[in-house]
Amino acid sequence: MSQTRQQIIDLADQLIREKGYNAFSYKDISSVLNIKNAAVHYHFPSKAELGKAVIQQNWKDYTRELKKWDVLNPTQSLEAFIQVYEKLGSQGLVCFMGAMGAAYETLPEIMQSELTAASVEIRLWLRQVLRKGLETNEFHFTEKVEEKADFIISALLSSLILQRVTKENIPANVKSAILASVK
Amino acid sequence: MSQTRQQIIDLADQLIREKGYNAFSYKDISSVLNIKNAAVHYHFPSKAELGKAVIQQNWKDYTRELKKWDVLNPTQSLEAFIQVYEKLGSQGLVCFMGAMGAAYETLPEIMQSELTAASVEIRLWLRQVLRKGLETNEFHFTEKVEEKADFIISALLSSLILQRVTKENIPANVKSAILASVK
DNA sequence: GTCTATACGCTGATAGAC
DNA sequence: GTCTATCAGCGTATAGAC
Fold this sequence. Notes:
- The structure is a homodimer.
- Chain A is mostly helical.
- Chain A has a single domain, classed as Orthogonal Bundle (Tetracycline Repressor, domain 2), CATH 1.10.357.10.
- Helix content of chain A is 76%, strand content 0%.
- In chain A, helix 5 runs antiparallel to helix 9 and helix 8 runs antiparallel to helix 9.
- The N and C termini of chain A lie far apart (45 Å).
- At the A-B interface, helix 6, helix 7, helix 8 and helix 9 of A face helix 6, helix 7, helix 8 and helix 9 of B.
- Chain A binds a DNA duplex through helix 3.
């Protein structure tokens, strides 16, 4: 992978998190990298392909993290998961799902399918962590695992969005509440 | 308020929820209402003022609901609150906070301040409901009220976004988990 | 890989007629 | 209130030179 291509993806990722997919432009990228509009098109003929590459990179990085956590116990896994959002929050960023999910219906189809596939995997992973935690008696809650998982994922996703709006540390509050709610 | 002005606000509201503030245009509105671009500018000289009007209308409607719920007990209040998101979810819509919050930093300042003010009020309202529920022994949870409130609001907000991505009934799952977690 | 040049529709916005 | 006319700039995208 060429260096410029990688820079374009990284920049597009940043722009999507900041402005959303529909509101960033090739010029936003070319002006920062000091290249021309056409040079960006050389690497990504269409904006949809660039968007797809951004999702794929995010997902690749995410699954690599997930793999690393295989050795952790349920409590540690959940904390590692939460820490991803904590880190994003400390940088004032939103997650890629939050950035693109709100305008999901307007995304090119090749981006929609990538995004949906990623959401399936994340939900399955967290369910499995919660299930294991119940079995080992590390976690204690009465809700259905599926519902608890969606509750947690949803809260983490929005905590980053609401942090921007409220200018308060919502991710920290959500973290405390999640950890308390599984004890 | 003229009928056209009201139609413009309603349409802009719909477009913002669907595409986001930065990605909708005056043409999206004028073409549907069968008027010209310039006619929209007559009612809202700038896009920022239209965006502000959309937030204000949402907030006016929201606070009217909140007032109605003054007579309810904490359990009923929480259920009424959740029902707002359930209804949006059944229509495939996201809430105005979710639609605009993700790109908060790119919004005109007059929109940012309206949005932030609204978030303060909602959080205060839910905290008060949770606090009262603890006092009356209707609710049982050990987390801090502030953290629990942010947990719940965050989850509801994202449940609408994730419903689009996953094509599953996330709001229903989140609703169950919330109600179970305060029992 | 990056450039210049170019296409052409859409963008938010304004001036002035009706 | 709505129209026509007009604006300068930006949007994605392509062709072909270097």
